Amino acid sequence: MSAARTPVLFVSHGSPMFALDPGTTGPALVDWVQSQAPASQLRGIVVMSPHWMTRGIGVMGTPRPETWHDFGGFPEALYQLQYPAQGDPALARQVLALLQAADLPCGEDPERPYDHGAWVPLRHMYPKANVPVVQVSLPAHVPTSVIYAMGQALAPLREQGILLMGSGGMTHNLRELRRVQGPTEPYVTAFCDWVEDTLQSGDLSAMLDYRARAPGAERAHPTDEHFLPIYFALGAAGWGQSPQVLPQYISHEVVYSSLSMDAFSLA
What we know:
The protein is of the alpha/beta class. The protein has helices spanning 25-36, 76-79, 89-101, 116-125, 144-154, 186-201, 204-208, 210-213, 217-220, 229-237; strands at 8-12, 44-54, 57-60, 106-109, 133-139, 162-168, 248-251, 254-255, 259-260, 263-266.
């Protein structure tokens, strides 16, 4: 295993159909894994998904998590997919200790399954399911700074071959999702461009206050749970601090006219 710090990753997991239809984002993530975070160099993955929200912070301690098909109305083939990666109770205990040391209230969930925000992108990235995975929950009703602090607290794991990953959506307005592919909605472009420009500038205060500052924020995210895992990734990378860490974009795909699949890494 490499002694270098692992990079940090933010991915947009889009619709559950991403598991069957990789578009351009799936292959781009595969290429990134092969060059930046191959399974042979990882001891584990810690991922935050918006599909596990809790009061306080939950940490998956499940030794062999089940694959949860936490959605409805999709083709039967999607429900047949499994992601049999092992959990890692020892890594979960490390996560708990680091969060507790940062005064972030947390607790272990010994039965938590993998929700689709975790297993769908990981199925493309590590199809052999040969890297242990621990999920952390998205705490409900907390400011963006708390989620950023969670990433900061877990940053030392990067020195131990752990990939820290936020899985969400750069835009997520299901009311405007179109089943037939068409032109990208202008508000999607405006919002995504603002995020990319802000990330490149290193303006942490603007990013933490995205709801008030980003154009089209309320339309891009009628509810903000799918955007919030970005702060977990940013905190883990020390983005917005000195020295400055800049994102490297992996994907700029938009599907169904309004669902941005933007993904980026931070070294």
